[in-house]
Amino acid sequence: MAHKIVLVSGAGGFIGRWSVPRLIAGGYQVHAVLGRAAGGAAGRELPVQLRGAEIHRTDLLDAEAVRALMALVKPSHLLHFAWIATPGLYWTSLDNRRWLSASQHLLQCFHDHGGVRAVMAGSSAEYDWSRVGVCDERSSPLADDAGVAITPYAECKIAMQKALEHFGSAHQLSTAWGRIFFQFGPDEHPDRLVASVIVNLLSGREAPSSHGRQIRSFLHVADVGSAFAALLDSDTTGAVNIGSGVPVSIAELLEKIALQIGRPELLRLGARTASPSEPPLLVPAVDRLCGEVGWRPHFSLTDGVADTIGWWRTKLADGSNETNR
């Protein structure tokens, strides 16, 4: 395709913004959709990653606004991140169902205006954590396969992935679905694990954690964004895990953070009780991402931690209000 126009929803979010530089470098004309609470509102500056993109402030839960946006942009490609993601709320919020409906409407409007390829963001929460440790897109059971109650977030993400696949098949639309595993990096919500530990240690406070024996896979958010851009730019279809694929215990990650900051004595492993629902092992198989898509991460875990600590040092030194969001 000579001219590639991509609409990126949730482009002001933690992950979405990091897809934009890679897309621009790949020759895309990028239209970045910011929601009601995105950067640039209430005195906040736009994320620097959005430089070079055309900005649209559109409520994607407003069906008429979405129709108007698609008619204006007429994108050839769609990269859809927008969804409820507020820590502590998104697992059970009824807004998940609103976003499921809005995402289906977004997809229909995209197709109606000539779109040819759509990639949407899913989650590791779609897998059945009680029956799988290493998650493979082609064989691992999903949470709804077990016939037990699942969270509204997982239920709606699974439903959207299936809707995307069926819609693509019915309308000859190329589609893919990126299942995100565990990410961290600059501007992460301060209530999340890595950010909270970094902020506490840099502030000279204790950082309590569970025992940390859980095995996970962590990826710097810039790499998550670039992986989605690479997936969009590929011909790969279906579900694709987005993660590093390198297993590491939570304790090892937190100890790495504490040592880099120089305050290991403030890390309190075992101070909090681990949730009984937390699986001991949860990591992605990344054969499709690395083999079919041909993507490779830029950051090692050590370098990613250093980059994130450096970002928080600057924010705290500047007296930024970012840590109070």
Helical residues, percent: 25-40%
Backbone shape:
globular
- Mean pLDDT across the residues is 93
Which residues sit in consecutive blocks of at least 5 with pLDDT less than 50?
A: 39-43, 321-325
What's the β-strand tally? 15
Order of helices and strands: EHEEHEHEEHEEHEEEHEEHEEHH
Kindly provide the radius of gyration, computed on alpha-carbon positions and rounded to a whole number of angstroms.
Answer: 19 Å
Tell me the name of the CATH class of the largest domain.
Alpha Beta
Strand content: 15-25%
CATH architecture of the largest domain: 3-Layer(aba) Sandwich
Characterize the structure shown:
The chain is an alpha/beta fold and 325 residues long. The chain contains 9 helices and 15 strands. The chain folds into 2 domains: 4-183 and 218-245 and 283-298, NAD(P)-binding Rossmann-like Domain (Rossmann fold), CATH 3.40.50; 186-216 and 247-281 and 305-324, UDP-galactose 4-epimerase, domain 1 (Alpha-Beta Complex), CATH 3.90.25. The longest helix has 20 residues, at 152-171. The radius of gyration is 19 Å and the shape is globular. The model is unreliable at 39-43 and 321-325 (pLDDT under 50).
Question: Which properties best describe this structure?
Answer:
single chain, 325 residues, alpha/beta, 7-stranded parallel sheet, 15 strands
Describe this structure in a few short sentences:
The protein has 325 residues and is α/β, with parallel strands linked by helices. It has helices at 19-25, 63-73, 95-112, 152-171, 193-202, 221-232, 250-261, 287-293, 301-317; strands at residues 4-9, 28-34, 54-57, 77-80, 117-123, 134-135, 174-180, 182-184, 207-208, 215-216, 218-220, 238-242, 248-249, 267-268, 283-284. The chain has two domains: 4-183 and 218-245 and 283-298, Rossmann fold (3-Layer(aba) Sandwich), CATH 3.40.50; 186-216 and 247-281 and 305-324, UDP-galactose 4-epimerase, domain 1 (Alpha-Beta Complex).
